[in-house]
Amino acid sequence: MTTLTPGAAPVAPDPSDQTRAMLAGSDRRRRVTDRVATGLVVTAFLIALVPLVSVSWTVVSNGFERLSPYFLSVSMRGVFGGMDAGGIYHAIVGTLLITTVAALISVPIGLLAAIYLVEYGRGRLARWVTFFVDVMTGIPSIVAGLFAYAFFAVLFGPGVRFGVVGSVALSVLMIPVVVRSCEEMLRLVPNELREAAYALGVPKWLVVIKVVLRTAVAGLGTGIMLAVARVIGETAPLLITVGVIDSINFNVFEGRMMSLPVYVYRQYSQGLVPCAPGAADCIATINYDRAWAAALTLIIIVMLLNLVGRLITRFFAPKTLR
Amino acid sequence: MTTTTSPTAPVGSPGGAPQPPRSARRRWPEGRATRAFRWLATGAGALILVVLAAVALFLIVRAWPALTADGATLGEDISWFPDDSSLLRFVGPLVFGTLLAAVLALLIATPISIGIALFISHYAPRRLANGLGYVIDLLAAIPSVVYGLWGAIWLAPRLSPVWQWLSETLGFIPLFAGPAADPPRVILTVGVVLAAMILPIITAVCREVFLQAPRLHEEAALALGATRWEMIRMAVLPFGRSGIVSAAMLGLGRALGETMAVLMILSPGALYSFNLLQAGQHQTIAANIALQFPEADPTGVSVLIATGLALFVITLAVNMAARAIVARRKEFSGAN
């Protein structure tokens, strides 16, 4: 109180006034730079919204019209030219089967590897696994497809194309994602819980299964859902390992299968149909329409998986951790 | 006291004898189930390394016929393989096209990503920040084939007038030499679409790093009278520099391997050309594989796998460099 009274410095012109003037009247150039920077930062954010909004809008508006129960329940068998027919049932079947097999392969491996890293990981092997899991996240999807093709070509001879080959390709992409997210979730389990169980004489494997996994189950579910959502839209590896087909195939061990992303690409690449003038049952843009509708279905599936993943966290977390 | 006590044992240790039980516990035989579980988990960890090694191994095995054959034979056997050429001369333009598309995407995406990350970490209201981060993550959830469809059918016609204008006004720069192709199935369009696809990953990493910037430095800068931008330039960006570099490299790795968007938009060619606005000049490795693979004969497959091997090596190098920078940053950063 007393030191700040104006009378305390009687000789020089008031220093606190001088300081205030210096602080308040910062020169114009600096203030303008600040404004411009703020403007640029906000603009960058708005620019990022452009693709998000326009992708969602174009897919919904172009795909909504053709998306119908009929479209979801028939295959493309016997459909040609500009016929107003055909659907994506075979592609949905293929996508679900291939992705399920991929999840069956990669979830056990990924989860166990995450358990290894969190519960046992010491020394050089753990460091290597951590580093190469990160590196593996960056493997291009087409290289994963080539690997699966080469692997099965060595086993069964060249030119094999069936569902499991695609599943193996997707697993290569999925395992690192599962490991990363599961590892993060397992690390969140408080050490006190483990120690309490050890103190009761519970063997380590039971501690991991009954205490650690039980506590983290919601987070693990979310992580796995997001990993599935990531690979379900992969196109390139399936295009080269599973191929394309127009009819329904339920057998993942034999024969080509269609999948939704590949269907989108296939319809797009067939392009416009040359319609004879006056032809009644011929739609020139039928292939693009089907591509948009299939893309809409794919996006809906991906968003549902994301949503389910987030809801799991909300509803299945152990009561004590809420 | 019994007579069998060894002379080295501590005679009057208080609290009984804690030593024997403890060492006994350490030697306690691990239960069979516990041991099996440990080996199972360790095996899964090791399997990941095995898979990565297997990827390299199988690619090399299948690419071997193409790697050892001479160019003339390949040219005879494969319809799309240029005559009197060699594998190296075939891969060269593809590598060039791959790098060009990825670098273009990176040049567009990095500044925007840094802006978004700063907006989320330092400009947006606290309550909004999390939701905004989630919105940007949604961009990553959209499948690449949908980006391809959107880029080819919706975006390309809208970019066409912009590219026309660029070639007319800036045509004297070799990069933008006209005439701009219409429809614009050119590498610059691909760059724009790829940029949208790698925005989320660069933004996510940058955001993490910016949020870690030491709070005290920021407050000190503000207390000295710095404006918000000066605070960011003095306290946040220097702290996050290596983080930005590694984020950009992760984005680069993603862009290098992207297939569908390129395949659906670009009109392919095989030249070392910097004409960003002309069609039929470039092709990337990944798109070329997806284009030729379904109809390739065994020799052709072998050549394509050889190009895939090149892509694998390039992305592996980029990703390892990015991860190494992240790791080094952890060691040397004074703030941690």
Task: Summarize the SSE layout with pairings.
The complex is a heterodimer of chains A (322) and B (336).
Chain A (H helix, E strand, L loop, with lengths): L14 H10 L3 H36 L5 H5 L15 H32 L2 H15 L3 H16 L6 H25 L3 H9 L4 H28 L4 H6 L18 H11 L15 H31 L6
Chain B lengths: L18 H9 L4 H37 L2 H7 L9 H37 L2 H16 L2 H26 L17 H26 L2 H9 L4 H30 L2 H6 L19 H8 L5 H35 L4
Helix pairs in contact in B: 2-12, 4-7, 4-9, 4-12, 5-7, 6-7, 7-9, 8-9, 9-12, 11-12
GO biological process, one term (chain B): phosphate ion transport
Protein name (chain B): Phosphate transport system permease protein
Subcellular location (chain B): Cell membrane
Key descriptive features of the protein:
heterodimer; A: 322 residues; mainly alpha; MetI-like fold; 12 helices; disordered N terminus; B: 336 residues; flat
Give a short summary of the structure.
Chain A: Its main location: membrane. The complex is a heterodimer of chains A (322) and B (336). Chain A is mostly helical and 322 residues long.
Structural write-up:
The complex is a heterodimer of chains A (about 325) and B (about 325). With about 325 residues, chain A is mostly helical. Chain A has a single domain, classed as Orthogonal Bundle (MetI-like fold), CATH 1.10.3720.10. Helix content of chain A is about 70%, strand content about 0%. Chain A has 12 helices and no strands. Chain A has helices spanning about 15-25, 30-65, 70-75, 90-120, 125-135, 140-155, 165-185, 190-200, 205-230, 235-240, 260-270, 285-315. In chain A, helix 4 (about 90-120) packs parallel to helix 7 and helix 4 packs across helix 11 (about 260-270). The model of chain A is unreliable at about 1-10 (pLDDT under 50). Chain B has one domain (about 70-330): MetI-like fold, CATH 1.10.3720. Chain B has helices spanning about 20-25, 30-70, 70-75, 85-125, 125-140, 145-170, 185-210, 215-225, 230-255, 260-265, 285-290, 300-330. By secondary structure, chain B is mostly helical. Mean pLDDT of chain B is about 80; it is low at about 1-25. Helix content of chain B is about 75%, strand content about 0%. Classes of the chains: A mainly alpha (about 325), B mainly alpha (about 325). At the A-B interface, helix 2, helix 4, helix 5, helix 6 and helix 7 of A face helix 2, helix 4, helix 5, helix 6 and helix 7 of B.
